[in-house]
């Protein structure tokens, strides 16, 4: 769950989350006041090469490419006599013609490079404005620290919630606090909820995650005699058996550094016995039919390619994690990631809010934080 909510400070997730990238297209404020629309896909060399760098590294890379562009332009001008001190010999017709032809041939490439640099300079400038206004760097750092440490100091937690940031930034931060905590401190959770209400944030999604977290803790500690109430509650809420609910809760609320999805894909591609993937079914049309009649075949790995498709919302964080997994392998593996829809953190929290509303949770009279 954390992958869909956490603030990420890498370029692609930032652009998607903050600038509302849809179908590889976004619109931002231009330098002269008008709106500029840009395409961002694999045909953009800068986007493809630097999409998962941290934002400060992207800014450095933009500056480096701009300096290289200026140097190349100066070199073209020097060779064609466009600047003082140019090496131009009036008697060397062949040599001069060659310089001119090289310059002419390099112009389209230089023009294209400049367009790419200008595009990402403009996008980065708009992002920087949002980062400063909302302290997005602070949210990303604190959330990452929480996930690694398994919690956060109360004063630090409340300080962030009472500081800069949109209503949705604060709600997402509060939910990450819940997910990262080993157990819920009721007094602390109430303080967080009060801080959210002070900022006029609808706490429905927060209460929903707290309820799910409480269910997970209860299932782990309850004895067999006391589980009937939990079973009844879960079946009433989800309309399915408790085993189906509990199967997903552990991974749903996982706060491990490596995403649950990435761990699963890595284990499946290795094709070795692993308790995390024992329940997965393998269907291979080339394999002989299983004697059990289940249709599932034994796992025979390792595999070089994988196509991962999420039924429901996906995000750039999962995509980046899978690409990182593919690149770490020797030899490099190929992983394709697809989803029913790519959700921003705000959109994912909106879905949690709807689930909470179905349970009658939320802050009466407080508008949704989705547009804040």
UniProtKB/TrEMBL annotation:
It holds the Pfam family Sec1. GO terms for biological process: vesicle-mediated transport. InterPro entries: Sec-1-like_dom3a (IPR043127), Sec1-like (IPR001619), Sec1-like_dom2 (IPR027482), Sec1-like_sf (IPR036045). Belongs to the STXBP/unc-18/SEC1 family. This is SEC1 family transport protein SLY1-like.
């Amino acid at each position: 769950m954390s992958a869909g909510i956490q603030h990420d400070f890498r370029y692609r997730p930032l652009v998607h989350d903050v600038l509302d990238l849809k179908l590889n297209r976004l619109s931002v404020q231009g330098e002269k006041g008008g709106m500029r629309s840009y395409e961002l896909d694999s045909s953009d060399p800068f986007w493809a090469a630097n999409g998962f760098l941290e934002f400060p590294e992207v800014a450095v890379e933009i500056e480096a490419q701009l300096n290289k562009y200026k140097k190349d332009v100066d070199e073209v001008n020097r060779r064609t006599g466009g600047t003082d001190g140019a090496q131009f010999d009036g008697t060397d017709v062949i040599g001069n013609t060659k310089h001119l032809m090289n310059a002419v041939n390099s112009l389209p490439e230089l023009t294209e490079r400049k367009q790419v640099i200008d595009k990402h300079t403009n996008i980065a400038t708009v992002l920087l404005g949002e980062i400063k206004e909302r302290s997005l760097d602070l949210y990303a750092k604190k959330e990452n620290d929480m996930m690694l440490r398994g919690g956060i100091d109360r004063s630090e937690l409340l300080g962030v919630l009472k500081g800069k940031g949109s209503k949705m930034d604060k709600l997402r931060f509060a939910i990450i606090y819940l997910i990262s905590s080993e157990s819920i401190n009721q007094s602390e959770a109430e303080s967080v909820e009060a801080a959210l209400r002070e900022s006029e944030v609808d706490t429905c999604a927060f209460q929903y995650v707290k309820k799910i977290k409480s269910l997970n803790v209860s299932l782990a500690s309850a004895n067999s005699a006391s589980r009937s109430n939990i079973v009844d509650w879960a079946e009433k809420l989800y309309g399915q058996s408790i085993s189906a609910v509990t199967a997903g809760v552990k991974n749903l609320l996982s706060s491990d550094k490596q995403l649950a999805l990435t761990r699963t894909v890595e284990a499946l591609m290795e094709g070795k016995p692993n308790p995390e993937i024992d329940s997965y079914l393998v269907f291979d049309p080339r394999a002989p039919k299983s004697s059990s009649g289940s249709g599932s075949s034994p796992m025979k790995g390792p595999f070089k390619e994988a196509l991962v498709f999420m039924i429901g919302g996906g995000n750039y964080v999962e995509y980046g994690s899978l690409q990182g997994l593919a690149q770490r392998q020797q030899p490099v593996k190929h992983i394709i990631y697809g989803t029913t829809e790519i959700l921003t953190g705000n959109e994912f929290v909106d879905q949690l809010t709807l689930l909470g509303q179905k349970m009658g949770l939320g802050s009466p009279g407080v508008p949704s934080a989705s547009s804040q």
